[in-house]
Amino acid sequence: MTGAEATGQAESSGPGGPGRDGAGQGGGDRGGRLRVAFVIGTSAGGTGRHVAMLADGCAERGAAVAVLGPASSQQRFFHDHGGSAAVPGGNLPRSWKFVPVEISDRPRPAHDGAAVLRLRRILAGSSPDIVHAHGLRAGAIAALALAGAPGRRSALLVTVHNAPPAGGPAGAVYAVLEWIVARRADAVATVSGDLAARMRHLGARDGGRALVPAAPAAPPPPDEVTRVRQELGGGRPVVLAVGRLAAQKGFGTLLAAAARWQQRDPAPLLVIAGEGPLAGSLDIEARTAGLAVRFLGQRSDVPALLAAADVVVVASSWEGQPLSVQETLRAGRPLVATRVGGIPELTGEDGALLVPPGDAERLAAAVLTVLGDPALAGKLGAAAQVRAAALPSEAAAVDAALALYRQISGGYPAVPR
Fold first, then answer.
1. What's the domain count of the chain?
2. Are residues 356 and 401 in the same domain?
3. Are 249 and 320 contacting, i.e. CB atoms less than 8 angstroms apart?
C-alpha cells in the first residue's frame, strides 16, 4: 500500500472471510492479538515509507508485527528495527522487528528461489494471521512461499503500487507475476482505479482501494520560505518538481517543456528536488540545452520549497497516489500534473491543470498559463486546499488496513486453494 498506504475494505469473504470461527475479531494470536507479517521488496520511495507507517500504526494498536524484506530497505526505512528470523516460541515479536529477506528489484531466478525458500521457513515458523505483501514481486514471492508452507496457511493480502512495464521481456515477466498474485492472494488492494480494473480482469479478489496518505507537515515559518526563495535566486518564477529521478517520473518530458518556456521574460527557473539513477544524465541534458535548471538533490525542507514555488509540476508517465501531489494540495499551491493513474482521483478537475503524459508542449503551455494568470493560480491553490481536506490521514489508513486484515484472516485449510 505508496507516503502511506493502507487498504479499503473488501466485499468478498471467500475462504477465511469475515466471521470465520470468530477469527475476524482478532486473529489467532494468544489473547486474540492479530499477527501481521509485512513483505516488501527493494524500495527507494513511497512504498517503503508506507510500510513503515503501517507497521508502526499496527503495533501501536496492539498487533504483533514483523517486516520481511531486503537489507537495503531496512537501512533506508527501518533502520531503528533489527531482529532475526529466529523468533522464540514460534510467534512474531511483540515489539515489531525487521527480518532480512533479500527480494530484489528485478527478476533473478536463483536469487528469487532462495527468497521464496527463506520466506517459507520464516512464515512456517511464525504462522502470522495475515501476510501483507507490497508490490507484484513481493506479492508473487509471498504467494509462492505460502503455497509450499506446511500446516495452517496465513491469509495473503497484496497491495499493487505500480503499473507493470508494457511489452518486452520485462512486461512478460510482470504478466506472470500479476497472474500469480491474482490467483493466489486472498485479496488484492490497489492504489488507483486503472490498477483495480486490471487486477479484477485477471480474476483477483478485490481488496478495495489502498489509502496512501502523505505524512502531515506543519506550514513552514515565513523566514524559512524567504530563505529558500533567496537560495533559488529571488525574482524569477519558480517551477518546482519533487520526486525520484527515475524514468517513470517523466523528467525528460519536463526538461523538454522547460526548453519551451526559456523565452519568457523573466525565464522561469525549474527546480528539481530528489535523487535517483537519472540524476547525472538529466543534469547533462539540462546543461547541454542551456536550460535554467537547479538540481537540489534530496531535501528535508520540501514544505518550504512548496511554499516558495509559483507552480508545482508532476510530469510522471504513471502514478498511484503520489506523495508529492498530496503535499502540494495540502500546501495550497498551483499544480500542473499528468492525467495518469490515481492523480485525477486526488486532484479532481479543479485541483490542478491536468495534461496528457509525455506531451512537453501541453505541459509547457499549462505552466505558462498558470504563471501568466494570478487569478487562475489563486483559484487552483484554493481548490487544492479543499481537495486536501478530503485526503485520508495516516490513522485512517492504519484503521482501514486492520479492518481488512481481520476480515480476511483466520481459519485457513492446511493447503492453499
1. 2
2. no
3. no
Residues 401 and 328 in one domain: no
Shared domain for 28 and 41, answered yes or no, is yes
CB-count burial class (<10 Å; 0-12, 13-18, 19+) for 416: middle
How many other C-beta atoms are found inside a 10 Å radius of the C-beta of residue 365? 16
The answer to whether 40 touches 103, Cβ cutoff 8 Å, is yes
- Quick one: 165 and 303 in the same domain? no
- Per the structure, the complete domain to which residue 62 belongs is given by 20-213+394-408
Does residue 250 share a domain with residue 198? no
pLDDT by position in tens, the chain (length 417): 333 333 333 333 332 332 222 223 334 444 568 999 999 998 767 888 899 999 999 999 989 999 999 988 888 887 665 543 333 334 444 467 889 999 987 777 888 899 999 999 999 888 899 999 999 999 999 999 999 777 668 999 999 998 888 878 888 888 999 999 999 999 999 999 999 999 999 999 999 999 999 988 889 999 999 999 999 877 899 999 999 999 999 999 999 999 999 999 999 999 999 999 999 999 999 999 999 999 999 999 999 999 999 999 999 999 999 999 999 999 999 999 999 999 999 999 999 999 999 999 999 999 999 999 999 999 999 999 999 999 999 999 999 999 999 999 863 333 333
Residue type, 28: G
> Is residue 216 classed exposed, middle or buried when 0-12, 13-18 and 19+ CB atoms within 10 A define those classes?
exposed
